[in-house]
Each structure stands twice: as C-alpha cells, then as structure tokens.
Design brief:
Blueprint (H helix, E strand, L loop, with lengths): L6 H17 L2 H10 L4 H9 L18 H14 L1 H21 L2 H12 L5 E4 L15 E4 L3 E9 L9 E7 L10 E7 L5 E6 L9 E12 L3 E2 L5 H37 L1 E2 L2 E2 L4 H29 L5 H26 L10 H8 L9 H11 L3
Parallel strand pairs: 1-4
Antiparallel strand pairs: 2-3, 3-7, 4-5, 5-8, 6-7, 9-10
Length: about 375
C-alpha cells in the first residue's frame, strides 16, 4: 500500500510537530516522568489550538477530521511524549468518539464542545481484578432504582482516573449466562460521592499512570447511560477498535523517537577508533529497527483508512496491535543495548522508552490475546 498524505495532512503534521517542539521539549518530558506529573501544560496548549477537537464535527467546535488525521496527530504527539498522546487519545476516543457514536443529543451538546476545548478530560473504566483479558467477566454492578442507578464494584488499571473529569464506565446491569449480555456503558462524573481512587505505582507511564477505583453505593442519574442498556459491550468493542488505532499510532511515534536517539548515538559514540554504528553488530540492529518502523507505518495508515471506510475487521485490528506493540518493545530494547551502560542510566531517555514500551504488549489487549484473535480468524 502506497501511503500518500494530502497537503492538508502534511500541514497538520508540521503544525503539531512545531507546537510540540515548543511546549513539550525533552527536558519537560523528563520532568513529567521523574516527578510523576501529567503533561498538563502541553495538553492545554494542544487544546488551545483546537487539536483535541480534530475528529469532532464543526457543529461541536471541531474540524471534522478523518481517522487518518487522528493517526497523524497521535503519531506526532507520541514522537514527543507517549504519555501526552495517550492522554489525548483517551479524551478523544473514550470521550468524543463514544459520545458521537452513542450519545444523546443532550449528552453531545453538553460534553463534546468541552472535550474539544480541553475543559474536561475522559478516562475508561473496564478492567477489574478478576477480569483482565477476560474483559466481559466484569462484575461491577449498576442497579436501577426509581430515578437513578446505584453502582458498586471495583475497577483496576483505570488510567488517568485521578486527573480526569469523566469516566466511560463499563458495568453490568443484568445478570446473564452470556458474559457479553447485560452490560451497559455509563458516562459518569469522577467526583461523584462514593468513588474512591487509589494510585498504583508502575514501572513506566509515570506521568499519568494508572489507578484502582472503588465504587461504593455511587448514585448516578439515569441520563448517565451512554447508548443502549444491557447492550453496551457491542459499543465498547467498537470503541476498542479506535483504541487499537490510537495506541498504535502513538507508540509508533514513540518508537520513531527511540530509533532517532539510537541512530544519533551510534553515529556519535566512538569505540576502537570509529563510531560504533560502523560495526556490523550495531548497524544490523538499526537496520532491523528501521524495517519494523516501516512495517508499523504501513499497518497503521492502512488500518486508519479501513476504519474510515468502514472496512476494518477484528483480524486487522489484532494484527495492527500485535505487530506495532511488539515492534515498539523490541526497538526500545535494541536502542538501550546500543546505548550500552549509558542506556541504563536514568539521565538518558532510552530507559524511559524501555520502561514505557513494556506495557504495550500487556495493556489494551495482550499480545497473547491478539494472537488468539488472529488464529481464530484463520479457522483454528
């Protein structure tokens, strides 16, 4: 597949890249990572320029951008700071895209302009202590009362819950013998009484990180329901396809940055009288890294095009997620090896890519689950 971007898309890429070079330099990224604080200033700068409203229709203050536009935006953000790109994706997909697909007119009017302006941010609550890869085994229950729902249960790995204004919560509303039935999506205020949030310390993704959330008799209004009651899994699954695209684009950008650091280091670091990049042991690593980047790029923009045309399949999404995640992890690992002892030092950026990339093959559908999906599509 030949990847051809329009003139407008090239301008998009250049504009975002220029802005992030100013508001998200590496010193700032290192500070966010070391101090475990979110890149709020960079996020707000992107919001002020309208980039968070990229996929929103003009009637809600957006640019009516395509899925390819979204991939370009997140790729560029990922090149500067993966955590920033992931924060953007959560609000744009779990917030904007989900509301566009299944929100009521009231919900769209109330929330979409505020998401696009950066006034509110959104996270996603799905995984539970007993339901990780087996996502539909969730037990958090929303019981309908007269004029409200009462939610009780526990979620884990709800990333960004502590800094988000709203959460797209997936809960069970009816007990059923079929796990995918009886599930409903809710768009809830994270400050609602009864919600307890605990930060989880993690190896990587320190800027935003993740949380454990307890729902204890959390009372929410009936109009918090997003989409159909008891038929929410089908919708959540649809959003997950956008997650595959968004995360792959963001991580591809981060992998490109890791490669650039490794290449620059290999050209400048001398041992035995010449740059280490002149040694075949190093040059072949860089060659392999470059091939993985090229394949990742094709898969991302092919899938973005397919999603935009309504032609994407679960098989395609699994291949994309599997390859780009494994490539990012491998590229970061090889980059650290090229840096040698310096790569192991916290003052150099390669250790951050190494730590952050490890999540890519675990979170949002592990590599093992993606292989299961691909194998099933082959009739195995």
């Amino acid at each position: 597949m030949d990847i051809e971007f329009t003139e407008e898309q090239e301008i998009l890429r250049a504009s975002v890249g220029k802005l992030l070079a100013e508001v998200c330099p590496q010193e700032y990224v290192q500070k966010c990572d070391t101090e475990a604080v979110p890149p709020r200033e960079a996020y707000n700068s992107l919001a002020e320029k309208g980039w968070l409203g990229l996929i929103l229709p003009e009637e809600y203050g957006g640019s009516d951008g395509s899925t390819v536009d979204l991939a370009i935006l997140l790729e560029e953000a990922g090149r500067h700071y993966e955590e920033l790109a992931v924060w953007m994706f959560r609000s744009m997909v779990w917030g904007a895209y989900a509301l566009l697909c299944h929100g009521s007119e009231k919900q769209k009017s109330e929330f979409l302009p505020r998401i696009g302006s950066g006034e509110i941010t959104v996270c996603f609550g799905l995984t539970e202590p007993g339901s990780g890869s087996d996502a539909t085994a969730l037990t958090t229950f929303a019981e309908k009362k007269n004029d409200h729902y009462l939610i009780n249960g526990q979620k884990v790995f709800t990333s960004g819950m502590d800094i988000s204004d709203y959460c797209l919560l997936v809960a069970r509303t009816t007990k059923s013998n079929r796990q995918q039935e009886g599930i409903t999506n809710f768009f809830i205020d994270t400050k609602t009484p009864g919600i307890e949030i605990r930060k989880i310390e993690t190896l990587g993704h320190r800027g935003i990180g993740t949380t454990q959330v307890f729902y204890n008799d959390v009372k929410i209004p009936l109009d918090s329901v997003l989409g159909e009651v008891d038929n929410g899994w089908k919708a959540a699954d649809q959003y997950l396809w956008y997650e595959r695209l968004s995360l792959s684009a963001a991580r591809y950008g981060a992998a490109c940055s890791a490669f650039d650091y490794a290449l620059e280091y290999a050209k400048g670091r001398e041992q035995f009288g010449k740059p280490i990049g002149k040694f075949q042991a190093i040059s072949h690593k860089l060659a392999d890294m470059k091939v993985m980047l090229e394949v990742s790029k094709v898969l991302i923009y092919k899938f973005a095009d397919q999603v935009g045309k309504g032609k994407a399949t679960r098989h395609d999404a699994a291949i994309l997620k599997l390859y780009t995640s494994e490539a990012y992890k491998t590229i970061s690992d090889l980059g650290l090896q090229i840096y040698g002892g310096y790569g192991y030092c916290m003052e150099y950026p390669m250790q951050r890519f190494f730590r952050d990339s490890r999540l890519s093959v675990i979170g949002a559908g592990s590599s093992e689950i993606q292989r299961n999906i691909i194998a099933k599509s082959l009739g195995l």
